[in-house]
Design brief:
The structure holds 2 protein chains of 2 kinds. Chain A is mainly α. Chain A has one domain. Chain A contains 7 helices and no strands. In chain A, helix 2 runs antiparallel to helix 3. By secondary structure, chain B is mainly α. Chain B has 2 domains: 122 residues, no CATH class; 310 residues, no CATH class. Chain B is built from 20 helices and 5 strands. In chain B, the strands form 2 sheets. Chain B has a 3-stranded antiparallel beta sheet. Chain B has a two-stranded antiparallel sheet with strand order 1-2. In chain B, strand 1 and strand 2 form a beta hairpin. The longest helix of chain B is centred in the middle third of the chain and has 29 residues. Chain B is globular and about 75 Å long. Classes of the chains: A mainly alpha, B mainly alpha.
Chain lengths: 203, 465
């Protein structure tokens, strides 16, 4: 009973954190929410995978947050410009999008649970929420940091769901490498173009 | 020693060492040398077969355990590995001539090692993860540290990352379909999920928009390498799916859908190429046409499916290498690769322009050039199945031919009094010369590829049997 309640709390935390990442323009808050999101994902992953494999995902996630945070911290305040979104910038618009995703997931999760029994409703709802809001995030931004945050959110959702159907250590390892790779790629993309042109000769 | 140690671990470690230890001219030589040696080992020493050298017995064991799963390269993989590392050597030796960054060789070697791992991993479904990691390694090559990342790179990253979950999920769904093949609903869902995964991975219409963008914003040589390496291994991965799952192989609807996707890629890219005013974007569309031909070959309902697909493999690698090298040489002089910037370049860079045009004509399937025999074989297959498909493939190639004529016209559009110059270095001239000779050899004597591709169908247990 108590694990079920915690699972629902984790799914709720996923909804809150992914919505914060989607709505928020402050990178510090977004990365904080992402770190919390990994904690919620850790709990849901450990419903199907051993504790050690779940903790790999948590540690990897936090490492990614640290990489992105340290990179962003090193950039000048001039870089604190908003991403060049091509869709409306309004917070309300994004909130409505998150609401639409939530409603769709609320409608489909019980049906998926009925079709694939054994996954657990909180796992399905939490993972699909992350996937949905991650995809929405990718659809409305072209800013490097936000794209990486969207990809990481989407990938975390996928990992939670996939952990329920595949328990291979190799997959867990490769997914951890993928997450770390996205973090490093993201920080490289953030740095690119901010260095002086003289560096050209050094590469 | 095991095959994965030789063809996965060794190049990966070599790439790592080159990245930190070698600079300047040494890195292309080292990278090209390592690739050549690996290709030669694949040719000389068959995997899992004991060879007696005097009193010494040598046997390369096929598999290696890693994190509880097996990485296996079998005897049939040998020729494929030889082709891949041979073509990779060509790309790495060309780095010096193209003026690409040092890390191209090191990261390129690591990418090839990861892609080789993608054909070795068991279960093969996990290849999607390795392809994704390889795609991420390409990013530092596409975006120099002094340049802001463009939209093409971001889209490339997003699409490649999207592909992986779709493919992993479809693999899980496919096992359900196998258990209950009569369930039309789940079969359709699985087919859609799988199709979406490969559409993202291969850049099927309309998901290929990042390719022309990348050709504009990144180094043509690096992008050419990416456009050669990733689709080649993705196609092998896709053939693995067709081979593994009976219903995928036998479904006429799926076959038609694959052919439709392929022909749409060929026709649309060919027509778009004919409308471009940027030499790099034209190459991007030509690469899409090449991938479309792969897809068309995979969708053909014949026993020759594997032969036709692999027949396209070697010419594609050579054409893109020559084309990308020629573009890289021209781009070092021209500010951009727009038509108005490269007007009259035939008199300044005659070798590069000639190589570029010949590579372009080869992709259109011009007789006597490398692209002609595989296109003829594919056309023959298609003509027996659908005249409409043959016609639209012709339209696509015609569009590419129009683009070649326009490019040629722009390159020779010089003032009459302008004198002929020879600005290519000896290294550049040699590399382009070797490439062009290769294009003619493969076009006139296509049987030279037979030792490599004759045994490739045995890579697949059921496909084409």
């Amino acid at each position: 009973m108590i694990p079920d309640i915690i699972s629902w709390i984790a799914a709720g935390l996923m909804l809150v954190t992914s919505t914060v990442v989607l709505l928020n323009r402050d990178w510090r808050l977004s990365l904080g929410a992402l770190a919390l999101q990994y904690m919620a994902a850790f709990w849901l992953v450990t419903q199907h995978l051993p504790f050690v494999m779940g903790s790999v995902k948590l540690i990897t996630g936090w490492m990614v947050v640290a990489i992105l945070g340290m990179t962003r911290l090193g950039l000048s305040t001039d870089e604190d410009i908003h991403g060049n979104s091509f869709m409306p910038h309004g917070q309300w618009f994004r909130l409505v999008l998150a609401l639409v995703v939530t409603l769709v997931i609320a409608g489909t999760s019980p049906r998926i649970e009925a079709a694939i029994p054994g996954l657990g409703l909180p796992v399905i709802a939490g993972s699909l929420l992350l996937i949905g809001i991650g995809v929405v995030h990718l659809g409305i931004t072209s800013d490097e940091l936000n794209v990486i945050l969207g990809l990481l959110t989407m990938l975390t959702g996928f990992e939670v769901l996939y952990a329920a159907i595949e328990s291979s250590i190799l997959v867990a390892g490769l997914l951890a490498i993928t997450n770390l790779g996205l973090g490093i790629t993201g920080s490289y993309l953030l740095i690119a173009g901010t260095s002086p042109i003289e560096l050209k000769d050094e590469i | 020693m095991s095959a994965p140690t030789i063809w996965i671990l060794t190049p990966f470690i070599a790439g790592f060492l080159i990245l930190f230890l070698l600079r300047g001219r040494l890195s292309p030589l080292a990278g090209g040398g390592v690739s050549t040696v690996l290709a030669l080992i694949a040719v000389i020493f068959p995997i899992d077969t004991a060879l007696l050298l005097g009193s010494l017995s040598i046997k390369i064991s096929p598999s290696m355990e890693f994190l509880g799963r097996s990485f296996a390269l079998n005897t049939a993989d040998g020729p494929l590995i030889a082709v891949v590392y041979g073509l990779a050597a060509l790309w790495f030796f060309g780095t010096e001539a193209s003026g690409s960054a040092n890390r191209f060789v090191s990261l390129g070697l690591m990418i090839i090692a990861l892609l080789t791992a993608s054909i070795a991993v068991e279960p093969f479904l996990f290849s999607a993860l390795l392809l994704n990691v390889a795609a991420m390694l390409v990013i530092p090559l596409l975006v120099p540290v002094y340049q802001k990342p463009g939209r093409g790179v971001i889209r490339f990253l997003v699409y490649q990352t999207f592909a992986m979950p779709f493919i992993l999920f479809s693999g899980w769904m496919l096992s359900g379909v196998e258990a209950s093949p009569g369930d039309v609903g789940s079969t359709l869902q699985t087919g859609m999920v799988l199709g979406l995964g490969f559409a993202f991975l291969l850049g099927v219409f309309p998901l290929y928009n990042w390719i022309p963008m990348l050709m504009e914003e990144a180094s043509p040589y690096v992008t050419g390498f990416l456009l050669w390496a990733l689709p080649t291994f993705t196609v092998i991965f896709a053939l693995g799916f067709l081979d593994r799952y009976t219903w995928l192989r036998t479904s006429p609807q799926l076959s038609s859908a694959i052919q439709f996707m392929g022909v749409f890629m060929v026709a649309s890219s060919g027509l778009f190429a004919s409308q471009q005013r940027h030499v790099g974007r034209i190459m991007g569309y030509a690469a899409i046409v090449e991938t479309g031909l792969f897809v068309l070959a995979m969708g053909s309902r014949s026993v020759e499916i594997v032969n036709t697909t692999f027949l396209l493999l070697i010419p594609r690698g050579l054409e893109l290498a020559v084309w990308a090298l020629a573009l890289a040489i021209i781009k070092r002089k021209a500010y951009s690769l727009r038509f108005n910037e490269v007007k009259g370049f035939a008199r300044k860079y005659p070798i590069a322009v000639a190589a570029l045009i010949l590579a372009h004509l080869s992709v259109t399937g011009f007789p006597l050039l490398a692209g002609f025999p595989p296109r003829l074989a594919l056309w023959q297959e298609l003509a027996g199945q659908s005249l409409a498909l043959s016609f639209w493939m012709f339209v696509g190639l015609l569009g590419l031919l129009a683009a070649a004529m326009r490019t040629l016209a722009v390159f020779v559009m010089a003032e009459e009094e302008k004198t002929w110059e020879w600005n290519e270095s000896w290294v550049q001239t040699t590399m382009l010369g070797v490439g062009v000779i290769g294009l003619f050899v493969l076009g006139m004597f296509p049987q030279v590829t037979q030792p490599f591709i004759a045994n490739l169908p045995s890579l697949f247990e059921h496909l084409g049997q």
